């Protein structure tokens, strides 16, 4: 087995692990839009280093011509942006995948009666969450 070097966020290993939350409205497509809410994956990072976070999730359900559906999405934030009072946030710019889904019997399936389409979303996360507490 060949070892794969880990380079993403390597300079941040000594900084505290944390995540961020974001909630934004997507762009409109086919006459509708979705709420996009997510928590980033936690990483070690501080307010002034160059760390980033990955995120993924599903949009909130919306209707197209009376047919409910949602979309999957994945993305990566920009680098940490310091806040004047301490802490930091991240900007993001991403889009959903183009496949509309519905929940069916504990799973989800593609909705073939809705044309494939995407929704762009952009915004800022909140400040960091879940930092370890020093005792």
UniProtKB/TrEMBL annotation:
Pfam families: YmaF (PF12788). It comes from the Bacteria. InterPro entries: YmaF. This is YmaF family protein. The lineage of its organism: Bacteria, Bacillati, Bacillota, Bacilli, Bacillales.
């Amino acid at each position: 087995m060949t070892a794969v070097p880990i380079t993403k966020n390597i300079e941040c290993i000594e900084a505290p692990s944390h995540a961020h939350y974001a909630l934004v409205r997507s762009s409109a497509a086919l006459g509708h839009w979705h709420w996009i809410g997510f928590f980033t994956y936690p990483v070690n990072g501080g307010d002034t280093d160059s760390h980033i976070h990955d995120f993924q999730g599903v949009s909130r359900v919306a209707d197209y011509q009376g047919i409910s559906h949602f979309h999957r999405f994945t993305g990566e934030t920009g680098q940490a942006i310091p806040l004047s009072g301490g802490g930091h946030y991240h900007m993001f710019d991403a889009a959903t995948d183009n496949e509309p889904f519905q929940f069916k019997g504990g799973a989800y399936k593609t909705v073939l009666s809705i044309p494939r389409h995407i929704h762009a979303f952009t915004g800022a996360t909140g400040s960091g969450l879940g930092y370890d507490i020093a005792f």
